[in-house]
Amino acid sequence: RRRCHRSTGRLRTPATPWRRQRWPCACAAAADVSRRTIYTHFPTLDQLLLDAAAGAMSIDVHGALATVSDADAQTRIRVLISAIADGLTQTLPIGRKLIKLTVDAPAASGGPKRGYRRVGWIEQALQPIQAQLGRRRFDELVSALSCLIGWEAFIVLTDVRGLTPGQARAIITTSALALIDAALASGTAPE
Questions:
Q1: Which pLDDT belongs to residue 61?
Q2: What is the DSSP string of 23-52?
Q3: pLDDT in tens, 32-90
Q4: Which of 22, 105, 165, 168 is the most interior residue, by most CB within 10 Å?
Q5: Residue 41's closest CA among 101, 97, 121, 92?
Q6: Can you tell me the distance from the alpha carbon of 4 to that of 49, in angstroms, rounded to the nearest whole number?
Q7: Contact between residue 31 and residue 3 where contact means Cβ atoms under 8 Å apart
Q8: 25 has a pLDDT exceeding 90
């Protein structure tokens, strides 16, 4: 995916005119991957371009998490939610379009349609408690937090519930911390 995103910038040069009907071949060649790889991750050109734009606009979550010297997962999740919430003003319009494309796209074969950034960020934030939880419980916590952290939860809380972005951030943070507390309180399950 990263190579595909980087390659979209090289595709719009005068030497390689953009042809909508040949986008998978051009992108695959520029990213040095197969067309199948392109189609697996990006079923449509619109999805590729929106995902690349979202990636380019993406706030530096890895950088924000790197500044946290605390190994406490709750502190790290707070930083993650703050970094995402701070970037929502810039990324939410594209996020809404990506959600629509994801919902409208045919079922993915063998994996999720999108979400790799979010899952990676959550795993990075929770890394200090991974061994304590064990693989299965860690994966369950990452899945549960994936429902809370991202565009979808902010859209529900602002559009459906009528909350301000600040109120939505507070609800998401409180809910995420409760999930972490519950996972830690239930102890380590045998793998």
A1: 74
A2: HHHHHHHHHTS-HHHHHHH-SSHHHHHHHH
A3: 888 777 777 777 776 676 666 666 555 677 778 888 877 889 999 998 898 888 877 77
A4: 168
A5: 101
A6: 10
A7: yes
A8: no
